[in-house]
Write the structure tokens for this entry.
Amino acid sequence: MRVAGIMSGTSLDGIDVAIVDIGARIRTVAYGTTPYTPSVRRAILAVSNRACHTADVSRLNFLLPELYAEALGKLCRTNGVDPASVELIGCHGQTIFHESEGGAVAGRRVASTLQIGDGSVLAERTGIAVVSDFRPRDMAAGGKGAPLVPFVDQLLFRHRTRRRVALNIGGIANITVLPAASEPGEVVAFDTGPGNMVMDQLVAQATQGRARFDRNGARAARGAPIAALLEQLLRDPYYAAPPPKTAGREQYGDAFLQRLLATGAPIDDLIASATAFTALTIVRGIRLIGADPAELIAAGGGVHNPRIMGLLAAYLPGVRVTTTDEFGIDPDAKEAIAFAILAHRTWRRKHGNLPSATGARHPVILGKISL
Amino acid sequence: MRVAGIMSGTSLDGIDVAIVDIGARIRTVAYGTTPYTPSVRRAILAVSNRACHTADVSRLNFLLPELYAEALGKLCRTNGVDPASVELIGCHGQTIFHESEGGAVAGRRVASTLQIGDGSVLAERTGIAVVSDFRPRDMAAGGKGAPLVPFVDQLLFRHRTRRRVALNIGGIANITVLPAASEPGEVVAFDTGPGNMVMDQLVAQATQGRARFDRNGARAARGAPIAALLEQLLRDPYYAAPPPKTAGREQYGDAFLQRLLATGAPIDDLIASATAFTALTIVRGIRLIGADPAELIAAGGGVHNPRIMGLLAAYLPGVRVTTTDEFGIDPDAKEAIAFAILAHRTWRRKHGNLPSATGARHPVILGKISL
């Protein structure tokens, strides 16, 4: 079955679209990103967890699927994929509110999550069935509605005899630990710490915003990690705390950046330190639960940084460090592909959440189907 | 198939739940209304087409399905219906925004509609598959997302040799004209004018709010319609305008009430006039398009007013005036039943909109399915 996955994250970069063929294995047919225009980005921010008008939420809920449909159409055209060959779409939508701990309304306390980007509009505009709105069902079953990707990690990467760790190095880094022949209940997933976001901020700072990331880890290679700084950063109790745990973007935002800059060290040394810090905290996370994997399977933008990949291999002797490419999954497209796979599960009336990762009371069929 | 329909209208009265058995005919198994508490009503108003906070929309979107599930559970208990016998739920949700003419967002113009009351939460809480969010697909197909009930009228009441009119007397009155052996494209539906809302407001005024409607048309029977007033009211060009047309609640609100009270006529004469006005405008609507029906099939609260039903019969000689009861549809439950029937259509992968009524470019499968 040919399925498209459409992901737009809270970083508001834009719309990631992946098309995959789902059979005994997964094959990535096409992948691309369409950036949001500044006015769309502003419109999303204007309704994200803040005072706004019902009209703005409603209009944006109908506008986003138009943009998703255009992004999918563009991807098909550029890659010579017949849109009519796509049989199903999994669409994450845009999260504008998420409160798993609950909040007060009409005298009750209610946990809730709100993704916009209407599935019916997307189905009408593309002529393709859509599964949308994946998080509410897990939350209704007592889960946090996140993370959802570990379910897909387990589905794709679990091995009968080898212990594996699936790693995603996005803004934040997170791992899914998959014991050999693991039952779903044995899978543990959590955020290990920063992914690319500290490095990216330092590079942007060093270049006055002209560069957005350390291409090929070149700047880190020119600098040297500062051992004392790393030692100090690693003292944060987060890295020793047992899972479940979540690292927010706010944890590695401006305050963290200022702390690094305050050392007065050369910027390339700071970039080298941030690079090493990402690798070290990933390794800490893996060691934390005594995972000791045979293979580490990485995805996310961080896999393009040879410095990080090299450090991971160096810090994890005996572990084969590879990327999802080996499994037919473009490392940049993994999250979009995950929602294609989750949509396919729903279409087949199969559950798509991992209670050990989300905290749900039981497995549930995620999302809503627009025919 | 046993299907529940759950309707909560913009009047914010509460939650109407109907359970029907759908086969060759429709059988109403149970019907009931659970009023909203004042705090829920306030919370809905606070996010309805006005400045609010994303958090309030999100929390209420998750709270409402809890209330819907409770209302369905209560209905089952009071009527000795096994909840496990209900195989599907059609849930309209609560409209908090509707703008079929379109509005501006991020430099584009977008028509949109927003119903809250998450279907995934309702499915999880009841263990029953849910079809929710019926309006967006029709709007995405170029329709106004409303009215949706005429499709059900056509399904239930169309006759091979008789021309029929389905009438709903709610706050507003509307008709669906069904030519004999009509094709869907020949069905016309529109609002004829006030239903009960003018009468109800006069009765509330006369009783300082102690009575909310003219029980059995008793007050109208004690008064006499004022011919000059009726003549004047009927001069409004709305009643002669060709369909499609929509009468808003604002059209028969406080300003209309004050106009009646300003005549200084005895209140029962005004109530008698308002009653006659409802009947007269319904008749005008039927005559307007030369419908000349063999049968008029009424539903809505107005059917309990013998005065209105009597006037309709008197003004429409040769027309058999009856109610939906004859077709297994409790007249009070018709709207909730309509959404059970529309959900059943979606479940069977059949379209559920009537392009001649909504203006959509083509028939579409309505709603989103939560398994």
Notes: The CA atoms of residues 48 and 107 of chain B lie 24 Å apart.
